[in-house]
Write a structure and sequence with these properties.
Elements lengths: L1 E3 L2 E3 L2 E5 L14 H15 L10 H5 L3 H10 L5 E4 L15 H5 L9 E3 L8 H15 L3 E4 L19 H10 L3 E5 L17 H7 L4 E5 L6 H8 L5 E4 L3 H5 L4 H15 L4 E2 L9 H10 L15 H16 L11 H4 L15
Parallel strand pairs: 3-4, 4-5, 6-7, 7-8, 8-9, 9-10
Antiparallel strand pairs: 1-2
Helix pairs in contact: 5-6, 8-10
């Protein structure tokens, strides 16, 4: 729990990992990709404050004790949600799969949740695995990696017909939160696989589901914002936005935050640290202390205490059915999300 200027904040880190990218986990013959992937991730860590940088050896494989210290002890995160990423074409046991993530649930009872994943190219086997994962972990969400390689295939889209049985199974099982990596390219994946162009198709087709676009489509921020404002079930996942921009590109960060607050709104933005790329502590503290740098940003919505509380935890808690203690809640009139039916076009834009 964070307390800042007399206000208490319930923190939900909605996007973090427990990975193994050590050489012992590299697929034989695929070492260049496994090595290049984690080195690219490590380079992104360089966008954070220098005192938070890790050696590449530590970055490849950190311990459960490291995770506890960085996330719960020093980070003071109240609830954390693992997002599973497999990449088994390069990592023998998976980069960050549900089994390795799930192994930490008993260590942190009541504080940690694990999301699954699916890939439509796996067909019936993939559907069966999703059912089994749900039975074992009681999934509330999945993470989709549309640029992931599988055999000779180098990606898929949310528009593909093969996705239909998976979306329908998610609705049947009550897996309502669909996190999608749509942001910066990680070598050697293809940039086009992370384009946001397929999100509105899925969001319109499946209004019962919540589509959390991780990394808000960066660098395609305008495309994402204009799409997300018309789709009531599309949310902005702030991992990379905060970790990658707040320290290294403060003016660009202010523009991105302003665009998100204006178009998407404070009710549909979720904090995520992207740990272990970046530690949550400095990101949370930075958001609590942040404001626009000068009056040139005066046409954007203000970053209020209410907005901070929603983005840092209450929005994710609502999507995941997390019980928030009374002292951290907002008054009902403030915390209730807007009714999608109340949405209106900007005057004169029709």
């Amino acid at each position: 729990m964070y307390e800042h200027d007399g206000e208490k904040y319930f923190i939900v880190d909605s996007h973090l990992h427990f990975w193994d990218a050590s050489p012992e986990n590299w697929v034989k013959g695929q070492e260049q990709y496994a090595k290049g992937w984690i080195e690219c991730f490590h380079a992104y860590q360089g966008l954070g404050p220098p005192e938070t940088h890790w050696t590449i050896e530590h970055f490849m494989k950190y311990s459960v004790d490291d995770f506890e210290k960085d996330v719960f002890t020093e980070g003071r995160v109240d609830q954390a949600i693992f997002q599973s990423t497999y990449l088994k074409q390069w990592y023998s046991e998976g980069f960050n799969d549900i089994e390795h993530n799930g192994a930490l649930l008993e260590r942190f009872p009541g504080k940690l949740r694990v999301n699954g994943r699916w890939d439509p190219r796996e067909g019936e086997d993939g559907l069966r695995q999703l059912r089994e994962d749900h039975e074992r972990y009681g999934l509330k969400g999945v993470k989709l990696y549309t640029a992931e390689w599988l055999g000779s295939s180098r990606g898929w889209t949310l528009k593909d017909p093969d996705t239909v049985p998976f979306f329908e199974l998610c609705m049947e099982l009550g897996i309502k939160n669909i996190h999608i990596h749509k942001g910066p390219t990680i070598w050697p994946l293809d940039k086009d696989g992370f384009d946001v162009a397929d999100v509105d198709h899925a969001a319109t087709t499946y209004p019962e589901l919540n589509f959390i676009v991780e990394h808000v489509g960066l660098p395609r921020i305008e495309d994402f914002c204009f799409m997300a404002t018309q789709e009531p079930n599309v949310y902005a996942g702030l991992s990379v936005v905060v970790g990658g921009l707040m320290h290294a590109r403060p003016r660009f960060f202010a523009k991105v935050m302003g665009e998100l607050l204006f178009w998407v709104g404070e009710d549909k933005m979720l904090f995520g640290s992207d740990y272990g790329i970046w530690e949550p502590k400095w990101q949370i503290e930075g958001l609590l202390n942040w404001d626009y740098p000068d009056d040139t940003f005066s046409d954007y919505p203000r970053w209020t205490t209410e907005a901070k509380k929603k983005v840092l935890g209450l929005n994710a808690a609502r999507l995941y059915g997390i019980d928030v203690p009374p002292e951290f809640r907002l008054p009902d009139a403030v915390s209730a999300p807007g009714d999608p039916n109340d949405a209106q076009l900007v005057e004169g834009a029709a």
